[in-house]
Amino acid sequence: MSWTGARSPLAGGSPPGGGSANLADLLERILDKGIVIVGDVRVNLLDIELLTIKLRLLVASVDRAKEMGIDWWEHDPSLSSRARREDGVEGGRDRELEEENRRLRERLAALEAGASEAGVSEAGEGAEPRRGSGS
């Protein structure tokens, strides 16, 4: 792959035989300026649209993306440890789930304790009359 576009006078000359230098220059320009690639894919059967896929691709450096106001990766807890920490500090969904889980465990423990006490007392009461009736 080589870049055949016009060079900026500020960019300076390229080294001789520099196919890789041209590729490096191209990559540097793309990351510096950014590039948008747009495409639509449509699948039709007998003039009935079955599927439409709209592709939008932005290739830019992180700094350039931030300049454009694109920083979704900083706020996504699955991609950013800082976002996970902020989510925990703000008392996000995880904290609510942990609290609900704690309450449910307490209820379950109380129900199990009540059931085991009822089972012991029923077994104790039920066993004595059987002994008395058998004598």
Structure explained in plain terms:
The chain has 135 residues and is an alpha+beta fold. Strand 1 and strand 2 form a beta hairpin. The protein has helices at residues 19-33, 62-67, 81-89, 93-134, and strands spanning 35-45, 48-59. It has three domains: 1-33, no CATH class; 34-70, no CATH class; 73-123. It has a two-stranded antiparallel sheet.
SSE topology sketch:
Blueprint (H helix, E strand, L loop, with lengths): L18 H15 L1 E11 L2 E12 L2 H6 L13 H9 L3 H42 L1
Antiparallel strand pairs: 1-2
Instruction: Tell me the number of strands.
Output: 2
Average predicted local confidence, pLDDT: 74
> Over the alpha carbons, how many angstroms does the gyration radius reach?
34 Å
List low-pLDDT spans. Answer: 5-14, 130-135
Characterize the overall form. elongated
- Tell me the major beta sheet: 2 strands, antiparallel
Number of helices: 4
The rounded distance between the terminal residues' Cα atoms is 102 Å
Assembly context of the chains:
single chain
Query: What fraction strand?
Result: 15-25%
